[in-house]
Amino acid sequence: MSSPVHNWYKFTAGFSYKFVDIILDGYQPENTVVYEPFAGCGTTLVECQKLGFRSVGNESQELMCNVINAKLNWTIKEADYKTAIQNINQYVVSNKDKKETADKFHPLLVTLYDNPSLRELYSIRDGIHEIDNVELRLFFNMALCQTLHKSAIHPIAVPYISRSKFLADSGHALEKFNKISAQMVDDIKKMPNHNRLATVYNWDSRIENSKIADSSCRLCITSPPYLNNLDYGEVSKVHSHFFEMTSNWNDITEKVRHKLVTGATTHYRETDFNLDVFSQSEFAKKNPVTMKELVVLYDSIIKNAKTRKGKKSFHILMMHYFEDMYKVLKEMRRVLAEGAEAYLILGDSAPYGIYVATTQFLGDIAMNAGFREYSIHKIRTRGDKWKTLSNRHNISLSENILILK
To answer: Is the domain of 135 the same as that of 236?
Structure first.
């Protein structure tokens, strides 16, 4: 959170760039291309570029693709920045009080910002849109993303908006935008090289990406979604609504959720799932041993759900998650060359108190997707902070590194 460029966007499910450093330390830049199927906020791609490694990745959310491309563009010239920031400020002063600006306010954002800041935020957005240079627009929209965080009344970086918490230093959007964008220019100056070495595609890693050739990568470093009911479409809705990529729940479902690995109960309709039909899927047939174990867990989760208030369909979520990850692992194997390795940061889970050895299952599934061997290394124990809550399980969970060869 304090590293230049990496800290340009607060991401709920981010991971440490130092993990990427550790893995890359054993490789040479001249003969290594790194694959990242869940580019997220760009941690792997940015760090690869910092260290002189070529990399390629997929990110299914358009918003996050824009974030990544902004973080990877280190060719912004200070003179161009100064001209553009001056024009944006002039635009805001001229337009922030217009009635037409207030007409654009999304109802959600009205509840998260004071009126003067909201007017400035929308005017900044429209002022940026007037810039012809695409790279500069991405740069300033990135600064505006940070400004949305720092000027909000309530924290918007947590998994879901916490209206019980208030930010002490809310408001003053334009002032913060100017400060943030100036810091970003300084951050770019600190980068060891300004060559663009990374490519990110707005793509779903469950589907073959023909723009990434077979066996073209020597290494994969990633942190897939966890089986923990975190809805990434919901997490990013303040930004996606503000930039008019989405406007409501249906938009998030159609434009965002359907392109994501199933990681939340909001990703599917419970009535659409039939276990007998699922048992005939490619995933079930290619992973018969795993499927048999999952069915046992499926039944146990249903049984425990009857004693819980929420009654969420975690049993279906689990099935869809592993099927989707099988597709991701197949595509990963296609992209990786013979002798390549993949490093995945993963967490296990215990929906309704039923332990699911997620990392172990994914290791077994990877074998049926074409990998030769795997090993698991525990990073830390997690979930202990929930033990005092009566409605939560008390099972100790772990975060692990799954290494595939």
So the answer is: no
Q: Which residue has the tokens 């663009």?
A: 196
Residue 258 class from Cβ within 10 Å (0-12 exposed, 13-18 middle, 19+ buried)? Answer: middle
Q: Which long-range contacts (CB under 8 A, 24 or more apart) does 89-94 make?
A: 89/127, 89/174, 89/178, 91/123, 91/126, 91/127, 91/130, 92/120, 92/123, 92/124, 92/127, 92/174
Strand 217-222 versus strand 33-36 pairing type = parallel
Residue 224 is classified by DSSP as P
0.85 cut: is pTM over it?
Answer: yes
- Rounded to the nearest integer, the mean pLDDT of the chain is 94
- Closest by alpha carbon to 123, among 100, 143, 106? 100
Q: Contact at 8 Å (CB) between 386 and 255? A: no
Give the chain's count of helices (H) and strands (E).
17, 7
Q: Which of 62, 54, 51, 5 is nearest to 34 (CA)?
A: 54
CA pseudo-torsion sign 262, 267, 272, 275: positive
Closest to 44 measured CA to CA, from 192, 221, 209, 195: 221
pLDDT tens digits along 292-337: 999 999 999 999 998 887 789 999 999 999 999 999 999 999 999 9
Side by side, the strands of the sheet bearing 198-201 are 198-201, 54-58, 33-36, 217-222, 336-347, 397-404, 374-382
Within the chain, what is the greatest distance between any pair of CA atoms? Answer: 66
For the chain, what is the domain count?
2
CB-facing half-sphere around the CA of 188: CA atoms within 13 A: 19
Token duo for residue 248: 């409501």
Do residue 115 and residue 256 come from a single domain? Answer: no
Q: Which domain holds residue 41?
A: 6-195
DSSP of 279-314: TTSHHHHH-HHHHHHHHHHHHHHHHHHTTSSS---H
14 domain residue, yes or no: yes
Residue pLDDT, tens place only, 162-207: 888 999 999 999 999 999 999 999 999 999 888 899 999 999 999 9
d(C-alpha 98, C-alpha 102), whole Å: 7
> Residue 34: which H helix or E strand, with range?
strand 33-36
CA angle 44, 49, 50 (to 5 degrees): 100
Q: Is 24 in contact with 51 (CB distance < 8 Å)?
A: yes
C-alpha span between 108 and 242 (Å, rounded)? 9
